[in-house]
What we know:
Sugar ABC transporter substrate-binding protein; 20 helices; signal; 2 domains; alpha+beta; about 550 residues; Bact_solute-bd_prot1; D-Maltodextrin-Binding Protein, domain 2
Amino acid sequence: MRFSKSFIMVLLALMLVFMTACTSNNNGASGNNTPAPSEDGATAEAPDYAFGEDQTFKSNEPVSYSMMYSDHENYPYKKDWRLWSAIQERTNVTFDLSITARTEYENQKSLLVNSGDAPYIIPKTYDESAFVATGQIVPVSDWVQYMPNYMKAVKDWGMEDDLKAKLKDDGKYYVLPGMWEIAGGGYSYIIRKDVFEAAGVDVEGQQGNWTYEDFYAAMKKVKEHTGAAYVISDQFKGESALNIAAVQYGVTGGWGLSNGLNYDHDKQQFTFANASDDFKNYLGYFNKLITEGIMDPESFTQEDDAAQAKFFKGDTYVISGIYQVLADFKSKMQDKNSELYMITQPGGPKGKLQVESSRLENGIMISKNALDDLGEEEFIKMLRFIDWFWYSNEGQMLSLWGVEGETYTLDADGNVVLSPEIYYNGMNEGATKQLNADFGFAGGMFAYGGSEKLRMSKMTDGEKDFVTRVQSTRESRKLAPPIMASPEENEQMKLISTPLMDYVKTMTLKFITGQESFEKWDNYTSQVEANGSKRFTDMSNDIFQKTKSLLGY
């Protein structure tokens, strides 16, 4: 059958109209006919908001985004916090909050994500792994090119290797982490400096060079000088002390026990460190402290307040902690002449290494509901608000310090000066108001990440000194690559690692406290392998070999 030329032209025209209509109706779930963005985020029409690197995000029209909110008991949510109005004044953005008590936040997060009812923005996420397989979380690495302040921080601070730790087996990441220009000081040991010096220990002159053996020798002098039953009776059930020492011995322990693996950067492979001679030496060190009466065996079983009470009474002279508790501890010491000092974490057989190696904080997941409901253009707009609030210097200053001229001022050198009537983090002791509880700033939902200057700005002079000592006397560690297991592989590995590491943890305390003799070390290593250490390590290396090209190896 033959068709006329005019009939063919009409048919082509109808097909073009049909294709155009289909294209228009497929541009985002909202169905609006908005132009698609180009690679650099530009659109055919100017967006209805201001954004950019070091530029305040501002929507022409009011906009509200749903967000999960963890309500902390120490600074409970208030509708009239200055935080909310300050955000709205600058950006024209408000939040529709799903408020949950801090203690229930993780459970509620799981419930909402798994049911498909999650709010658009899900901050304060420490581990996103369990949510990836649900399909309810956006692979946000596909979208970060639209976030100029985020990308600037990645480039300027060299965060590429840090971000590899967040990659999943598809080569993408699903959380926007808080990023710091420098690593923090982390946990260490708070000591009675006055007692150590009375025992003949030159604390400030020597502590920067201490290894764990030097620290042992210093504590032994204190025991001999004071005649105390124990020099250290630790809190956190020993988890902090075991964690920070493990770094210097090349093993894992305490809070950082994880899967017991260590990564050899030269050989580019994982080994199971917690059955090695290094691990035996690590356990032997703590066993020596127990055996010689330097460390209280109750350190691994007692509640925190029991350990603190011994320290406050002057029965012991060392306790693990972070610098932020120093002022509170000082106020509770029975001997008001007590001089407290946070030592730099001691070094060990593997060198004098920084304990805190990651510069990433908890972060923000984005619900797929945001993309489905908003459509691509409005979704990008929301990302650019997030980019400003969490990743621009202006947004970070607002979330941490508040409003210049109200909650803080800047001195001639650009340093933050907190208003004298406001207390925060050891600053302005005795002030009548608190930066977080009364104004909503400096809370755990928003105030994480930023430049070195911003990180230092929230520290007292003593904490700045501690962090500077760590930065200047301790070597930064190379980051281990992630094990980018698929959900199925991850489940298999979990079935091995859970009983394996439970056994390692149990035996750790038995060796340290003397319930198990080191003469039976071979029995321990044989049982570790029987519990699957080799299988777990082999699986880890196989997965790494399959995925290392994605990681740049």
